[in-house]
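Exam revision sheet. Question 4 asks you to relate a sequence to its structure. Input first:
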Amino acid sequence: MDAVECQPGGKCLQVAAEEIGIPQFFKINFEEKNISATLPDGSKRSTPIENLEKIDGKVIIQGAEDGKTGKTVLTASGDEVGFVIFGACTLP
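Answer key, structure tokens:
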């Protein structure tokens, strides 16, 4: 498992998953639209899948948590590439 921790301003570091509290395995339940995992400290977490699509043989999973600050993190990925974009939302 590879993990890269990125912060606003473009600073990204390769880190061990354990260093940032990411579990090695995730359980994705497509029927219940839920992702769950056991963290390294033994605690369990789960998050709902808000949108699930299959496009060109790939599964696209979307969800969000803690969206109260107006700040945003967008992610995009392809075969062996990932992008992280930091920004903020404004009222129209």
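Marking note for examiners. The first strand starts at residue 3 and ends at 7.
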